[in-house]
Design a protein that fits this description.
Elements lengths: L6 E12 L2 E13 L4 E5 L6 H8 L7 E6 L2 E2 L5 H11 E4 L11 H11 L4 H14 L15 H13 L5 E5 L7 H18 L2 E5 L3 H5 L3 E6 L2 E6 L7
Parallel strand pairs: 3-8, 3-9, 6-7, 7-8
Antiparallel strand pairs: 1-2, 1-4, 4-5, 9-10
Helix pairs in contact: 3-4, 3-5, 4-5, 5-6
The protein binds adenosine-5'-diphosphate and magnesium ion (MG).
C-alpha cells in the first residue's frame, strides 16, 4: 500500500464566470488527506465548501493547481478517465437521499452495480452485504418511503459504497435529519471509518457533527483558515 495521500491538492483555484462577471471562489487550496482520515469541512455559506467537494469528486475542474486522487493526476485527465477514477474511488452522499421511489431498498443499492456490469444476482448479494453494514439488513424489501430519513440516508450510504470505493464524499449528509437520526448516520460513518478504513470528507455546518470527525478543516472566503483536531480551534 502506497504512503501517498489519497487526496492531494496543490494550489487549487476556482472562479465561476457568467458573462463578464467573474466570481473567484477558491484561492489556492493546499490539502492532503491520508487514507483512513475522517475530515469535517466547515465554513460559512458561500465559503466554497461545495465547490471544493465538486473538484475533489471530479464533478468540476479547477482553473489552476494540481489534484491527485489515489496517485492519479485527476485534474488533467480526460472526461472518460475522470469517470473511471470517480467510479472506482469515490462514493457520493448528498443532503437529499435521491433514492428511486418505485424500487425496493435492496434494488436501489444494487442498481449502480448492475449499471457497472455485474449480474443482478451478484449485485443483490453485494447490496445485501452493504445493507447489513449500515444496519438495515432486514429492510431490503421495503420501499424508500417506508423508512425514516436516517434510514434512507443509510441506504444512500450503502449505495454509494457498494462498489467498494475507498473515499466517501458527503455534502451536508445530515442537513435534513433531526438529532436522533443524525446520530444514527454518524454512527455508520464512524464504524465504516474505523472498521473498513473508509476515508471520509464530510461538509457540515453543525459543530456537533464536526466534533465526531478526526479532523476539522475550515474554509473562510475560499482559503483554509483552520486545519486540526475538532474542538481545538481558537476563535
Ligand atoms: P458553500 O458550499 O460553502 O456554501 P459554494 O461552493 O456552493 O459554497 O459557493 C461558493 C460561491 O460560489 C458562492 O458565492 C456561490 O454563489 C458561487 N457559486 C457556486 N456555484 C456557482 C455556479 N455554478 N455559478 C456561479 N457561481 C457559483
Ligand atoms: Mg454547499
Amino acid at each position: 500500500m502506497s504512503a501517498a495521500p489519497l487526496i492531494e491538492l496543490r494550489g487549487l483555484t476556482k472562479s465561476y464566470r457568467s458573462g463578464e462577471i467573474v466570481t473567484p471562489v477558491l484561492h489556492g487550496i493546499d490539502l492532503d488527506v491520508a487514507r483512513g482520515d475522517y475530515v469535517a469541512l466547515m465554513g460559512a455559506s458561500g465559503s466554497g465548501k461545495s465547490t471544493l467537494m465538486n473538484l475533489i469528486g471530479l464533478l468540476d475542474r479547477p482553473d489552476e493547481g494540481r489534484l491527485s486522487l489515489a496517485g492519479a493526476d485527476a485534474a488533467k485527465a480526460d472526461v472518460n478517465e475522470q469517470a473511471r477514477i470517480r467510479n472506482r474511488e469515490i462514493g457520493f452522499v448528498f443532503q437529499s437521499f435521491n433514492l428511486l421511489k418505485r424500487m425496493t431498498v435492496l434494488d436501489n443499492v444494487a442498481l449502480p452495480l448492475v449499471y457497472a456490469g455485474q449480474s443482478r444476482s451478484a449485485a443483490r448479494e453485494r447490496a445485501t452485504e452493504m445493507l447489513g453494514k449500515v444496519g438495515l439488513g432486514a429492510l431490503g424489501k421495503r420501499l424508500p418511503n417506508q423508512l425514516s430519513g436516517g434510514q434512507q440516508q443509510r441506504v444512500a450510504i450503502a449505495r454509494a459504497l457498494a462498489n467498494r470505493a475507498p473515499l466517501l464524499l458527503a455534502d451536508e449528509p445530515t442537513g435534513n435529519l433531526d438529532s436522533q437520526t443524525t446520530s444514527e448516520v454518524l454512527d455508520v460513518f464512524e464504524q465504516l471509518n474505523r472498521d473498513d478504513g473508509l476515508t471520509i470528507v464530510l461538509v457540515t455546518h453543525e459543530p456537533d457533527v464536526a466534533m465526531r470527525a478526526k479532523r476539522l478543516v475550515r474554509l473562510k472566503d475560499g482559503r483554509i483558515a483552520f486545519d486540526g483536531k475538532p474542538g481545538t480551534e481558537v476563535h
